[in-house]
Amino acid sequence: MKHIYIILVLLGFALSVSAQIVTKEDSLQAGLVRNTNPTAISGYGQASVKYNLHYRTGQANLDRVVVFLGHRFSKKISLFTETEVENAKVANNGSDGEISLEQAFLKFNVNKDFYVVTGLFLPRIGITNENHLPTTFNSVARPQLETQLIPATWRELGVGIYYNVPQIPGLNLSACLVNGLNSQGMGVGQGIVNARFEGQNATASNLAINAAVLYYYKSFRLQASGYYGGSAGLTPRAADSLKLNSGAFGTPVGVFEADVQYLTKGFYFKALSCLITLPDAQYINRAYANNTPSAMNGFYLEAGYNLLNKTKYEEKRLNLFGRYEYFDLNATVPDNGIYNAAWRKVYITGGIAFKPAQGVLVKADVQVLSTGNYNQTLIINPNPNAAPYVPTQTFVELGVAYSF
Fold first, then answer.
1. What's the pTM value of the predicted model, to 2 decimals?
2. Spatial distance between the Cα atoms of 135 and 46, rounded to a whole number of angstroms
């Protein structure tokens, strides 16, 4: 009876911070893994087919398979690791396949309201970064804004503290110190995606801070988060030769976002707005000639309804949804930058997602991409056989996802 009471208390605590216990990883996070079996194995994956109706081409891909391995050393200390294989395989010919560690960190529970993580982990920023399982979003692909603007999944090395404010139920605060970015990997149309180190030989000369305020209120989830860090992890001599600031937060990058989610058994709604600033973009361009913008911004809105709501099958879920995304990867360019309207993008996505069982999601959607015209001055060595740039394209996507 005592053990049942402890489990109920832990489960109540997990639910009080709106943790959804659906995987072994979630159970370990909530402290529900039994001492008699302290090691947890979990995972997720997705396969998809994407058709381009304009070019009449299609591509089938095993997008990712991820294996989670966690271990509870004691009531206070747990290990979390995720190993990911993208695009089915990695070949020696330089194909796009990748094997990587998505997470590898230790979690130290100081008390029921406060814990510390250290290692390779996901900063709390945006909606998808921490909650990126393919069974947690209805579209086949992740939101494009949280792929191209906020590069989910975004993981770095560092230490983070997380605090559930007991005086205000539902209020969660976090702050992290992680390695910085690499300004050489930036460039217009790429955002900060290629500036991440992802745990591989990351610079510790540049640092970054991430902080978030997360609040659960009834059916709402409200969050505001920010990131500020340096991006020139060079020796002072090398940085000076490139006329870049090599201080801990030198050549800074700022990422700021706010999001809201509303969820009931039948209806859900989510919205996110993001701004990225690079105040030293002109110096980055002078050093690397990579046409880095000084600001990027965007937002998206998504809503959906469970067509099985209020039926005897409502727990299975059949979500009809729509999403509108707008973002500009070169919203502001410095004097030595060149604006390209092709990096101002609108994605309109609509589709359906069916959950036949817990941890399984079958998806289908149609996505329309609209951009401005490509700036021809950026084409230095044009390919005479290249097809003309198409500012509007339509895609049909099918996918199947799992998590356990």
1. 0.91
2. 9
Give the span between the Cα atoms of 398 and 46, in whole angstroms.
11
Check: CB of residue 116 under 8 Å from CB of residue 160. yes
Residue with tokens 């159970």: 27
Beta bridge partners of 105: 80, 119
What would the two tokens of residue 320 be?
């009809």
User: With contact defined as beta carbons under 8 Å apart, do 129 and 150 qualify?
Assistant: yes
pLDDT per residue as tens digits for the range 208-222: 999 999 999 999 999
Whether the bond between 23 and the residue before it is cis, its omega within 30 degrees of 0, is: no
Contact 188, 337 (CB under 8 A): yes
Q: How far apart are the first and last CA of the chain?
A: 28
| Whether the Cβ atoms of residue 392 and residue 53 lie closer than 8 Å to each other | no
Two structure tokens written together for 402: 């799992």
What are 113's two structure tokens?
């309201």
Query: Residue 3: pLDDT above 50?
Result: no
CA distance 125 to 259: 9
Percent share of the chain, pLDDT over 90: 79
Q: pLDDT by residue (tens digit) across 97-138?
A: 889 999 999 999 999 999 999 999 999 999 999 999 999 999
